[in-house]
Prior knowledge:
Blueprint: E1 3-6, H1 13-28, E2 33-37, H2 43-52, E3 58-59, E4 67-71, E5 87-93, E6 107-110, H3 116-127, H4 133-146, H5 157-170, H6 175-186, H7 194-198, E7 202-207, E8 210-219, H8 229-242, E9 247-254, E10 259-266, H9 270-276, E11 284-288, H10 293-305
Parallel strand pairs: 1-2, 1-4, 2-3, 4-5, 5-6, 8-9
Antiparallel strand pairs: 7-8, 9-10, 10-11
Protein name: inorganic diphosphatase
InterPro entries: DDH_dom, DHH_sf, DHHA2, DHHA2_dom_sf
Keywords: Hydrolase, Manganese, Metal-binding
Amino acid sequence: MAMYVVGHKIPDSDSICGAIALAYLKNQIGEAAVPTRLGDISPETQFILDRFGFEAPELKLSYAGEEVYIVDHTEKTQAPDDIDEATIVGVVDHHKLGDLTTSTPLECWIRPVGCSNTIIKMMYDFYNIEIPKDIAGLMLCAILSDTVIFKSPTCTTADIKCVEALAEIAHVADVKELGMDMFKVKSAVEGTPARDLVMRDFKDFNMNGKLVGIGQLEVIDLSVFDDIKTDLEADIAKLKEEGGRHSVLLLLTDIMKEGSQMLISSDDEGIIETAYGVKPEHSRVWLDGVLSRKKQVVPPLQDAFA
């Protein structure tokens, strides 16, 4: 029976590219694996798949009775709804440990790096498996995305070295140019419904018993949101009520100015000032230097709720 390799709900490029790359590796070492996904493909991920000639993994929402290898998360809120009825055989992740538990031993590759695909590159090296050109392209794009072309504070020397090695395999001459092409795709928001934008890169977190949703939109110029910001604010308020969440936060991240404006819908906006030391005005706050949800947004917010 083949294992299913799957990332988190509302998958980003790391989840999709990681599922494909890890499933290929597993098959090469004699462990049957199938890449799958838990949601729609984002425009950036579609750009990457098209660039290197891949179809999106199968959409599969139920995993009861199956063996599952988890990529890019360990949070139950981000996992398949029936994950408790599946057997988790492994985890590859670069986030804080979440609340997924298992009844049997499992393989764990968890490292404090900028991207799960950096860890998967380490796995290829460990098993001495050659990385095909097209898969190397997927992996390097995922790392460029997660590290914001090396600007994110989550970026490590390991991420940079992996991109250099993968670029050589994939015959990519200018990785920063490729990264900017990806972020230009991310910045094309005109005509996209507010809900689609809010949910493009959205994750739910359990923070001391409170459900908090955090979305992020990374662009090369925040002016693309000038005409739709009020629509985004109205939608996060609706999303908060629909999901019974304590808070929904939307980060509008300018990768060139290296900072984020946070739009806030919360039962208690004081939690934002406690977490970041800045008082919201009109349910908005500018967070200078903040690019990473994983490293700069979630940890202080988690501490504030605790």
